[in-house]
Specification:
By secondary structure, this protein is mainly α. It has 10 helices and 2 strands, in the order ααββαααααααα.
């Protein structure tokens, strides 16, 4: 008996027929197609008919196969991994440094605050040569912002920007966003603030104006100074944001 006959008899027996012939008859009735339920059953020949199965669309796509051992993808992958590790190490070091400074501040109390302010004033990027006596005096007194406001009101915008940027650096160190130190450049401070952050985008125009006046000996006008000065409240809010 073929497998097809076995199937028909089994279905007939399942239907309740005990006689083999009756089982075959009951099995055929059970296999009669109802609304196309058995596309593999051929009622005309009482047998099985082949079914065409098409290949799925995704199996016909010639997917590219990348070989990282021989293609340009390998050096690119290693480069991206190295950049990722470097950025991760930078932020870990910065987090550790800020935690250490915070711990030192808590341990030192009020005395430490006074000593830190003196350190910050001495580390500001201002020379000790002639021609900057007022700026140095204001730095020592710690009233950089008040001096910037006075010069702004007098219309001395080129001088006022020097005090304004010095005040911003002082506050960034105080809020532990940078670490003021002699010998460091303004670009280094920008990198410490972080790439592509709102705070960096805010202080960078002030820094460029400061360098144009201080190093380039170029004058700036009211509009350029005010574009930095009027964003001072925003700067102070961003500088305090996330400070422990």
């Amino acid at each position: 008996m073929t497998a097809w006959c076995h199937l028909v008899v089994c279905m007939g027996l399942f239907a309740g027929a005990t006689d083999p012939d009756a089982a075959v008859s009951s099995g055929r009735k059970a296999l009669q197609p109802r609304s196309g339920s058995y596309p593999w059953y051929d009622a005309a020949s009482d047998g099985v008919r082949p079914i065409d199965v098409s290949e799925p669309w995704y199996a016909r796509i010639d997917w590219p196969r990348l070989n990282l051992r021989t293609s340009w993808m390998q050096p690119l992958a290693w480069t991206l991994l190295a950049i990722l590790l470097a950025v991760l190490c930078y932020y870990l070091v910065e987090a550790y440094r800020r935690r250490q400074e915070a711990a030192a501040g808590l341990a030192g109390g009020g005395t430490e605050d006074g000593e830190s302010d003196a350190r910050r004033r001495e580390a500001l990027p201002l020379p000790t040569g002639s021609g900057q006596g007022d700026l140095l005096a204001a730095r020592q007194r710690g009233d950089l912002l008040a001096e910037a406001r006075r010069l702004y009101q007098e219309g001395r915008f080129s001088e006022a920007i020097l005090y304004l940027f010095s005040y911003q650096l002082f506050q960034l160190d105080k809020q532990r966003r940078i670490h003021l130190a002699k010998g460091k450049t303004n670009r280094q401070y920008l990198r410490e603030v972080g790439p592509a952050t709102p705070l960096r985008h805010l202080i960078e125009p002030t820094m460029v104006a400061f360098e144009d006046v201080f190093f380039g000996h170029r004058a700036i006008g009211r509009a350029r100074f005010e574009s930095c000065w009027l964003r001072l409240p925003e700067f102070e809010a961003l500088a305090r944001e996330g400070t422990p």
